Amino acid sequence: MPDSNAHTPASAQAKRGTGGAGTAAAGAAVRSASSVAAVSSSEARTDERRFRTYTFVVLTLGLVAAFAVSAWLPFKGNADLWWIGLVLTVAFLLAEQLGINVDVRSGISWTISFTEIPLVIGFFVAPFEVVLAAHLVAGIGTLLARKVVGRVLYNAGAFLLEITGAFAVAGLVKQATGAVDMTWVAALAGTLAAPLVSTLLALAAVRVLRRRMRVSTAVRLTGRILVVGFVNASVGLSGYLVIASTPKAWPLVLAVFLGLTALYWAYSDLLREQRDMEALSDVSLMVARSGQQAAARPANRADELVGGVDVREWATIAERIKDQLAAGRVVLRLRLEPKDAMRVVVAGDELPLADPAADDPLLRLPGAHVRHFRITEANPDVRSALIDRGAQEALVVPLRSASQLLGVVEAHDRLSRWRGFGKYDVQLLGTMASHLATSLDNRRLLATLRHDAYHDPLTGHLNRPGFRQVAKEPLRDFANAVVLRIDLDVFSTVSDALGYAWADRMVIAAGRRIRDALGEEVPLARLEGASFAALLVGCAPENAHHAAERLRTELSAPYPVDRLSVEANAMVGYATTSPEDNGDAVDIDGLLQRADVAVRATRGGEEVRGYVPSMGQIFLRRFQLVTQFRQSLEDEQVSVHYQPKITLPNRQVQGVEALVRWVHPEFGRLGPDEFVPAIEAAGLIGVLTSFVLEASLRRARKWLDEGLRISVAVNLSVRNLADEDFPAKVARELERFDVPPELLTFELTESGVMSDPQKALPILRELHSLGIVLAVDDFGTGYSSLAYLRQLPVDQVKIDKSFVLGMGTDLGDLAVVRSIVELGHSLGLTVVAEGVEEDVARDQLEAMGCDVAQGYLISRPLPEDRLEAWLQARTARSPGRHSETVLTLLT
């Protein structure tokens, strides 16, 4: 039966659709394409008026045509054949009930109803009025039984025109051939006229409702409908003629009819499964492709996404579902987070109710199954919800991921004259919802991973990669831009004193202050530790310093930590786009690098510094040192110097401290304070430590061969203490040079150990178990010395030279040194004083009971050849214990 995707309003609340056309004699149904978005209410009212007018015209023409044909072909009744009308009515009803829906393509469907068979037979066995009445009763009864009450008048007019057109064509053919009785040619021609009339009515409805359909498409559909009608009419006509001439042949006719029905059904199922698979694939691909496009968006445009998919893409997805279900409207309600309100996307007719009540019965769906609601069968609550939506029926299915509700899909009012949503529609929507929920959940997971990849987990601000990504677009659009680099210098202090949890709280608080000071729109990133970066676009260079000063003032205010108030200091470096950029695209990495150089320059005293080109030489020099270090080792530009240490009061040479020196071919002589931090930051400290250790053990081995027992001290980095294989490497070197482990001393700073005691302490215990002497360097400058000293497996403490140098003029420094000596001895440790440059300092240390002295008064650090000369010139050799030679410093 020809069928369009139109439906008239069934009630005051029902919304219009597109017009429909149908006839009991037609063997195919057509649904015109209606790929439109939600329309305005004014357009909806206009379309309703147009369709009502069209319905009146169709019904009027149908009545006029019926009276005209009845007058032309007057009824000649026979009381003995009263039952023929009942038989035809039952035949038409059966033909409609056996209807098969075939989805040919998106927006186009056929309904094969076999009504041509009783129609073609009706030409031979009953007059026009009986056939017309039978078809009207069967057609309108089917509509009412399926609760399609909003289109009765239009379809009644269509039924009248279909049957009157069929009998008019048959009568004209009969007159043209001069036949007395109905011939098979006339019956066949009349039967084909019915679907043709139905199709023309459907195409006219498309035009009335201002829907677009190409002429080629309309011609192609008409041709296909006539082919199907011809096949059905031929089967009915052949069966009637065979049975009329040979009554016993009815089983064969029935078999042919059943075979044709089975063929139609098989073809229908095949096409339906194909279309369903295409629809499922399309929806999944739409979500996947839109997710890939979303991944290319900047991190600051995530608000355009729903579950990781562009909001605009959901309209396309909803439209695809609507077309596949032949629905008048599809509504997607999607939720980003459990506490967020649902976002609504509509395809098809306008949705009167965009924001349903919290207790909406259509949205209170347990499980993940499809629910089918009809207004004629629903309870009062569901009926009210359908009326609010302007729908006669609805399929509703939730989108769930585990127990989380991701959204709800609603499909309203199937666009078919003969039937509403069926079991196949329920199955399709359920499967599609399952695929959609899985795709949506995957996209949300990818969106979460992408967010985590570009954001700092502690503060929620951008991280370094996210900052680069977000800054690209503003730097492209604005000529003036400033990158601020902020360092909070209290982070390590708080982590040492109170632990990392409190330090993290300070970082979070600092991030909030920066956000409050700069505003929500400014890209802000936490780079590492307590270091932040911010991008100010449209900021003139002359205003950059003022902005940096204001930010530093905000960050330097005390931080309340529990019941404490922690004083903090912030350093801000900034870099601006400059005329030297020559209008080229500014590189965010370059600006960050300049701001980093500027913030490092603040350590010279100023707390806010702007980048100037001369600062770049510092970074370039540091970069050269790092990249050239390995080659410098091979070229013997790096060497080890040794500074002697003597015991007090007998002034015997107890050992030496190994100190690295670098004579660079371009920069000249470099001290360790200049290049060691750069080497350490580049991860090359292990190479440097191995080099110094090997040189020191080789020197100790030579002394042992000469009968001298002089220990060597090597400085360790915090990165060495993070290497679990380091003790094993040291053990191999000791075995290689055959040096007793007690002649090797490792010096490590207190802050290095305390930066990560959980990693450092096991390494120290393993080194100490080898027999290696461990010394705490720069003792007295940390904040937790006394608390941790008893836990450290150390043998020596070295008093920081700042206290030793100030002993002669500062009573406080003198008291600190005396306290350290007494503390060290009370814990059974050897106390070493470095920075001894005057006789009075040496004498004071000797009077305090300090064990070992080291400093310029004794000797500067010397290369290996000069150290040998110093030992020969400044020491006297005498026999010691175990037949070893002892070196005593000459006065």
Question: Could you characterize the architecture of this molecule?
Answer:
The protein contains 27 helices and 27 strands. The chain is an alpha/beta fold. The strands form 7 sheets. It has an 8-stranded mixed β-barrel with strand order 17-18-20-21-22-23-24-25. A 5-stranded antiparallel beta sheet has the order 6-5-9-8-7, with helices on both faces. A 5-stranded mixed beta sheet has the order 11-12-10-15-16. Strand 3 and strand 4 form a beta hairpin. The chain starts with about 40 loop residues before the first helix and ends with a strand. The relative contact order is 0.06.
What count of domains describes the coordinates?
4
- Which percent bin holds the helix content? 40-55%
Lateral strand order in the biggest sheet: 17-18-20-21-22-23-24-25
Taking pLDDT < 50 over at least 5 consecutive residues as the criterion, the unreliable ranges are: 1-41, 102-110, 299-309
Number of helices: 27
CATH superfamily of the largest domain: EAL domain
| CATH architecture designation of the largest domain | Alpha-Beta Barrel
Biggest sheet overview: 8 strands, mixed, barrel
CATH first level of the largest domain: Alpha Beta
Please give the radius of gyration in angstroms: 47 Å
- Please indicate the percent range of residues in DSSP E strands (runs of 2 or more): 15-25%
Described by the principal axes of the CA atoms, the overall outline is: rod-shaped
CATH topology (level 3) name of the largest domain: TIM Barrel
Q: What is the terminal-to-terminal distance?
A: 123 Å
Structural class: alpha/beta
| Number of E-type strands | 27
